[in-house]
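Chain X:
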Amino acid sequence: MGASKRIRTDGDLLILKKTLEASNQRAREVLRALVDEQGFMQRLKFEPLGCDPLDLSDAQNFAEQIDQQATYSTGVVALAYLFRVHPDKEWDFAPGAHGSGHDIASTDGSVAAEVFAAVKPDNNNKLNKDILKVAAFAGPHRYVFFSSPARAASEWDDAGVRIVSLGIVA
């Protein structure tokens, strides 16, 4: 994903959801076309048969699309949560963006969140790394959202960061 997306309204959030649905549909079509091919796993890994889930014109390998799709879907659910908890804020949405920014941040600088999807939240120490990253944020509201089949939906606090397990996000 390139630049962040500015999310101001429920309508903006709906556009994100619809874009993710479109990339999901495209992925199903690719899989149907490849299912009987010899060497289809290599093609999925190495050929640009997929796309950035939020930019269907940005060709990527299918393995990368799977990872991004899960993270972006988690991010959309996290945004819906933040809309409820922090109404009347605008958001910059850039999950997985490169650099020192946060995956989700309010434009007024008061909220920062990291977002990820993983088989287990402790894989590669991801949860702890994100907690540390957000704990360093100077604003008053800090979050880590994640989706994982290994942890039921729940919330708790750690190091001044609100941790939100979303369970499995479809």
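Chain Y:
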Amino acid sequence: MRNVLAYVDERIESERAVELGIEIASRNRGSLKAVAVIEPLALAFDEAGLSCGEESLAKALLMANDERLREIASRLGRDSIRIAIETRIGATWIEVVRAAMSESSDLVIKTARGRTRRSWPLFSSTALHLLRKCPAPVWLVAPNGPLAPRRILAVVSPEPGNPARNSFEGEVLARAEELAGLFGAELDVLCCWHLASEDLLARHLEPRYLLRVIDGMRDEMHGALDALLAPFSGRIDERCVHLQKGTESAEALALVEARGSDLVVLGSIGPDAGPGMMISEEVENLVQRVSCSILAIKPAGFRSPIRLEDG
């Protein structure tokens, strides 16, 4: 994670993305670019609600955003890290994806919108678009809490007999371990399993046979998890590895609460996903409900539906 891109919007808390980007880029001796985006709708009317010259308003908005980015870079910057800036015009998530692609970014950082009501989602539609379609890893920063994570939760989903999936889950775990070392954080690992339609099967199978099926599935997942952890032997505390029966979203939320996790690292899309494919239901449930930051990884070779030449 040496080439970092941080998205900045109109909110003061969005500066947290720049602060985290500086922290990561400086520790990895990398670079940082801060990007703002002007939506085309903002160019349609002047402050009195009257149609005005698009070119003059666009120029004023570009100048204002560039000035703010320069001020943020000057105030937060360090001698060890150079912060480039850019203001783009277009749909926010599309321009952030295009900026990441043009910069060959290793990481995109965005500050979450936060909640004004407990039932509202933490992350906006822009964040979800980035999770689905940005080729670079996406770090969604919670608006509160520490920037540098103190405890990280890696959520992995190995599949027995699926080498491509297991290789990708190994990448997720390696990224989580790398960050734990970078920030001196504690690392937990969560692997979940469940028997689909267990309640329905219980109506048609003898209890002892159903129990054998459940035990067999647990043992199979235990073996897959052991194989995933084997390359990390001696580096991940086995007391911090959790094999839980249940759904990823429910079990991860419970573990975040119990362990005080500051960051969840997971794979947002499987290695067999096509361009623009939706993130899994479990991942989306977790993203919409978790109170801490999230780092979502995509598999090598993921192709975004956005193309630079379309811009």
